Amino acid sequence: MSQTEIPRSTSKPARDIWTEVTPQAMYDKLVAVSRNLWWSWHPEVVSLFRDLDPVRWRQLDHNPVALLAEMTPDQVAQRASEMVLFTRINQAHRRLRDYMMNTHSTWGAREGGVLGSMPVAYFSAEFGIHESVPIYSGGLGVLSGDHIKSASGLGVPLVAIGLFYDQGYFKQHLDRDGFQNEEYLDTKVENLAMEPAHDKNGKPITISIETLDGELKAKVWLMRVGRVPLYLLDCDVEGNRPEDRELTSRLYGGDVRTRIRQELVLGVGGVKALRALDIHPGVYHLNEGHSGFAPLEVIRERMSEDGMSFDDALRDVAQHTVFTTHTPVPAGHDRFEGKLIEEHLGPLRQKLGISYDQLMGLGRVEPQNEQETFCMTVIGLKLSRRANAVSSLHGYVSRRMWSNLWPWRVEEEVPIGHITNGVHVPSWLAHPMQLLYDRYLGPDWLGNVGDSETWQKVYEIDPGELWETHNALKSRLLEFVRRRVSRQCRRRNEDEAAVEAARTVLDPSALTIGFARRFATYKRADLFLKNLDQFAEMIDDVNHPVQFVFAGKAHPADEPGKKLIQSIANLRKDPRLAGKIVFVEDYDINVGRHLTQGVDVWLNNPRRPLEASGTSGQKVVLNGGLNCSVLDGWWAEAYNGKNGFAIGIGKQHVDTAVGDQRDADDLMRVLRDEVIPLFYDRDVDGLPKQWIGRMTNSIASLAARFSAHRMVMDYVKEAYLVAAGGLSSDMHMP
């Protein structure tokens, strides 16, 4: 496959399944649609698969490949006849075919320039595309998934590189004491929309990486995400040692040696996979430091193929490399001892013709400091000429954090910019809201979600209609929560009274606040516990009731995070809070989708400025919910006083304890004095007119700015075209 060829949806060449109407033809069309994850952000197609068997659809984590594997063509035809699905099947198949063929009239075709012949290679350790594809853990993966989905929608020439984890991230279960337990399950490859990747001669690709400890092999899978091919490396191959065959089994599992070997496969192995695929990128985008070894392999190629010196090759490759840093938290930047670096990169270092000290210097802030470990973020910054943070505030923090890499520059001139994260609108927008927008925003609005003008028509939506749609989504959320919580009670063998209480938990008319994210201590899920008595009194107001839905996982090795979950989950045992605070287990894309589409308020109270961006609150915006957040990450540049609520005024105290208490007090004040009164202030028709006005302001002012379409367009204009040498003019001198 050439670097510009885009994989098409699968079909059987021996027959024209488009014109046939036999059971086998209908079945083949559904299989073809299921094999491209394009279906996952098209609600009409999702509902088509659901209608084949709603019960199994839910049990199989909404996986159409697994669902169709359980059905014969005749069974599909019978169900299609009962549900009158034939026209919908034809339409879904035709839409996918047309989408894949229409590559000439996209934004990327118009604006992508040289990327058409030299695509972007986008590296990430995880991709959160859909809950049925468990190769993600949280925010970074979901951001990567949204990035490539928007690149597909915009028609940006891009290929993605990641790892295939056959056990994915863990399944979370809380015991009776509220403590998190982890369970890893094997994923059946045959139930995923992927296939072996082949080289130009049609042979399955296996790459090998030389280390001082022996050769490390990986096979390459192809997963189609709309127009974007996603290539996943998998170490479960013949020829690897037993421990190496399990190397890519778990995401963020194992010890530090496992981590460096995974990152070696992602970076060096990813570049080797691109070469085997005959893909020659014009840009290498390293999404976080996990893929920081990739430029070293590209440098080696330039030296070998073009006779360049190491220094010249480094300068050339760095010019074509974009690096994105995602966290100001020190623990989020992988560091390795020199012994591990030499063990895994020694053979590559020798081919590069550099010494051990030179290699270590690439990963150190102070190259000559032998006490400093090798940092993946440092090498990412040193081997790129376009580096960015993921929000305006995070850019400021990152420039300060890494200013010692450029000691001759003042902090403001440190070459780290920012491109604020955004979310893929079709993936996170509830279908009822989409139908509402269809009526008011115009027929082509989904193609222009990154244009702020598109969203100004939300002011024309009837307030009652917007409120009714939101309440329908809220009811759907509560049904989902009740189903999940009652199932949790049964699994813990709780008595029938507890199960029955779970079936009716939460009040559809009460103000519903959601909090769902990774349970790291700096995200302060327990901030309200500092004023627990006041909090209990506030939510127990019969005239103005408030209820909370929590979800989230702690890393298996994060004991403080696990205790944080336990403290929240056990609030259900407090008689003052029973039935008003629930914890939904096993946070994933499906849980996140329900919560962000149905809550009234999304709560976010990290310790500023440790939240680099965050995107969950951006998903809430699309669905009419309001954000109540510390002025950190994306919210620091989003809040305008009329589109949500702010905790604090954007300051942090040097004493963490003082800052936490100050924010806890302000959280209570905002809820008591602003959020609750506004929500319950109703007119004669029972509508909270001022609240609805704030919902409208939120959508109109934020939906375009924080869409992944806008984000990807920014990357193309501000980073990719520059790195590929595709600008007609650029007078900026770095």
How is the secondary structure organized here?
Elements: H1 23-34, H2 43-52, H3 54-59, H4 64-69, H5 73-83, H6 86-101, H7 107-111, E1 120-123, H8 139-154, E2 158-163, E3 171-174, E4 180-183, E5 194-196, E6 206-211, E7 214-225, E8 228-234, H9 242-245, H10 256-276, E9 283-287, H11 294-306, H12 310-319, E10 321-324, E11 335-336, H13 338-352, H14 356-362, E12 374-375, H15 376-382, E13 386-389, H16 392-401, E14 417-418, H17 425-428, H18 431-441, H19 452-455, H20 463-491, H21 496-503, E15 511-516, H22 532-539, E16 546-551, H23 559-569, E17 581-584, H24 589-598, E18 601-604, H25 616-622, E19 626-630, E20 645-647, H26 656-680, H27 689-702, H28 708-723
Parallel strand pairs: 1-2, 1-9, 2-8, 9-10, 10-13, 13-14, 15-16, 15-18, 16-17, 18-19, 19-20
Antiparallel strand pairs: 3-4, 5-7, 6-7, 7-8, 11-12
Helix pairs in contact: 1-5, 1-6, 8-28, 10-11, 10-13, 11-12, 20-21, 20-24, 24-25
